[in-house]
Amino acid sequence: DDYPLVWYDPDNAGLSLTLYPYDSRIWGLLTYYDLAGQPRWLAFADKVPPDSGLIDTPLWEYHGPETPFDFGLQRLVYQAVGQLQLDFSDPFTPQASYSYDGHANTLQLSAFRPLANAWLSGVWWDIEQPGQGLILSQQGTDVWGYWYFYDANGQSIWL
């Protein structure tokens, strides 16, 4: 339960990994800016490997409904667009390597840790509205976070 939610590489502004361990799996988002400077996200999920600390999983791009009021799983379109490798053999300085859309990079990750008893920190979503949610991290009296959702064209976006 004391697992950092958001990881980032100080040398790669605009890129972050959000990890959410749940039910023997790790669910997550890779947030980034595309070549046009638009914020985008790719999703991933994989089983937690016993003892190795290595995860190798596809990155999925989702396209959602054209309005935020027309949600439903049947309205989601998704495809594998890349690959993500996470190496947690050193849990304090993990490494992530990814490739998608002709791009590849390796990140030296640092934890963005909320303070103890930061009751707002976490991943918040409505199961009836897939593809949107809030990721919050409370730091004292400040709350940092982002909202991920689909834009008017059904493209994944985050603010």
What does this structure look like?
- With 159 residues, this protein is mainly beta.
- It has one domain (6-158).
- Helix content is 0%, strand content 54%.
- The chain is built from no helices and 13 strands.
- It has strands spanning 6-8, 16-22, 25-33, 39-47, 54-63, 77-87, 95-100, 103-108, 110-112, 122-124, 133-139, 142-150, 156-158.
- What is the number of domains? 1
Number of strands: 13
**What's the mean pLDDT score?**
77
% residues in beta strands: over 45%
Q: Specify the number of helices.
A: 0
- Outline, from the CA principal axes? globular
Strand arrangement within the widest β-sheet reads 4-3-2-1-9
Alpha-beta content class: mainly beta
Largest sheet: 5 strands, antiparallel
> Which segments are poorly predicted (pLDDT under 50) over 5 or more consecutive residues?
none
Radius of gyration using CA atoms only:
15 Å
Distance between the termini: 26 Å
Helix content: under 10%
Topology order in helix (H) and strand (E) letters: EEEEEEEEEEEEE
